[in-house]
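for the writeup, i need someone to sanity check this before i put it in the appendix. the sequnce is what the collaborator sent (i think, or maybe the updated version? ugh). structure was predicted straight from it, no edits. if anything looks off just tell me and ill rerun, i have time this weekend
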Amino acid sequence: MARKKSGGGVIVRISNYLKALLLSHYSRFLKRLKTLKSGVKTMLFDIQGKAGGGSSYPGYELKTGILCSVPQVTQSNTARRSLAIPANCIPICIKCSGTWNCYSGKGETSSLGISISDNNGKSFLNVNKNSGPQWMNISNGFYLYPLGAYDNDVEAAATINRIDINTWGNGGMYDATTGKVEVTAWLEKTGSGGAKPVKPKEYKRLYLYKDGDQCEDVTGGWAFTKPASPASGYTSSFNKEGCLYCGGQNSGNATFGTVNSINMSDYDRLIVEFYYGGNASDGNASFYVNFNSDNKIKVNIATVAKNKVCLAGSADMVGGKVNLVVATGGYSTTNMYIKRVWLETVGE
């Protein structure tokens, strides 16, 4: 109620009834707000049991961040690399970013593919090109929901311990690039002491050959095997202009190899930097990198491709003697300069 003040002003007094009415509406508003918050928590996997409706996944806690990851790599031909899932953790969201493509310059390539699966054989992604141009790609990044492959059965999904990233092709596929893969949301078993997220390895590099240095403390030195049919002018050197060198007219495989087996367990990839010259075409000259005679890299060499870098990714790092093979056909002339060979970790 209100009444006029003698000076012309207005004095406003709120009755006890109006006060009680406003307080009642405010109290009901707070109760509805609390109920709404509770419902939102339940929708967002309030698996700690704090929501009034109970736990969606009893015994697990939803966590976000980066549990584990592998970087983007470029590999050749059929390859697999894997992301280890820490114990007591179930991946909920896998973030895939960067470049995802396969390419082949050979017309006979009829199948290229990229897939992502787990150790139980559950497929999260399978992209396959059976015809058309000799390339394929997945653009703009993408996200995967592994728990859905198990129909949200937590007990079944708890057996996931590895995510595999695969590339394949035939007819000479090369330059298969798979991007960065991260687990950004996961269920973690409560009372397990907590998962310890995988810390990125500290970057380090180990040379096996560098600018004329054979790095004998690691490699035991390098040995050379001539091709089957070298011409009289064919030569080789362990230090020609700071490079492992072999060159001249020949037919067969010329091989530089480490004397010692190399332990690669602490490293993510092996990289070879080389320079090539000669008159051999792609069909008559190839460069291989193998460990214990198991080929991991094959590059067809063109006369116009003078400078190249090739690498073997983490899935191929089995260790052993490292062999660098120049294969020549048609009694052509090849001149190979191998400048540097090294192992390295991949930082984030």
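DSSP finds three helices and 24 strands in the chain. The longest strand covers residues 322-344.
thx in advance!!
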